[in-house]
Amino acid sequence: MESTEAALENPSSIISIPGWGYITVDQLDSSFEDDENDTVDPVFPSTLCGETFALSSSLKNHERLRHGNKRQRRDHSPQPGPA
């Protein structure tokens, strides 16, 4: 891979990517190395079925849609009504 100084001498080999800064054409071809210090993606398991989700909002939607809101369920036995 060429040095930063060499890349700056040839501006056509430098690319600006928003959010990433400046990279050289050689860096585009290089493979990304896994960093051992990378954080692990959070996993949110459902306490109702054990299915896991990457986002807590996805877990909440799943539990609401698939399992209903258990806290608000009541016994729906027939109530005495007007005769």
Summarize the structure.
With about 80 residues, the chain is α+β, with helices and mostly antiparallel strands. It has helices spanning about 5-10, 25-30, 55-65, and strands spanning about 15, 20-25, 45, 50-55.
Write the layout of secondary structure elements.
Elements: H1 4-9, E1 14-17, E2 21-24, H2 25-29, E3 44-45, E4 52-53, H3 56-67
Antiparallel strand pairs: 1-2, 3-4
In words, what does this structure look like?
- This protein is an alpha+beta fold and 83 residues long.
- The chain has a domain at 40-70.
- The chain has helices at 4-9, 25-29, 56-67, and strands at residues 14-17, 21-24, 44-45, 52-53.
- The strands form two sheets. It has a two-stranded antiparallel ribbon with strand order 1-2.
- Strand 1 and strand 2 (21-24) form a beta hairpin.
- The relative contact order is 0.10.
